[in-house]
Amino acid sequence: MVSVPERRFPRAARLLRPAEFARVYARKRSAAAGPIVVYAAPGPDRDGRPRLGLSVSRRIGGAVVRNRWKRVLREAFRAARGELPAATDFIVVVRSGLAPAGAAPARALRESLVSLARRIVSRPGYAADAAGDGTVSR
Fold first, then answer.
1. pTM to 2 decimal places
2. Which of 2, 50, 78, 133 gives 20 to 30 Å between its CA and that of 25?
3. What CATH number is given for 30-130 in this structure?
């Protein structure tokens, strides 16, 4: 029997609190490609899964456009969850444009999310962040 990939997006897979977003932004580890910017920080090692936070500003468009972006990004995260670095928190910020429609652009967005995440994690200094105690000095 072929196992069906996890299709849900449970609370444990999301960044929910402003403090969680602030912690990821404070690490200042980001990469951008096309219409998205991905921020990453080592996450609390609860279950070793990556977590996702979304930021889609009103300047991107009305509620319909913003909600479409969020749906597409959540689906890209669900599809790529197994390829993303474990125990890492990600925030995806949408810079501009309409949400991709169709299978090919959605696949390209998933591949972009994975490559940006790997690029951030592979940079010098990220491992030191992961080994730290989770606090950020200012």
1. 0.85
2. 78
3. 3.30.230.10
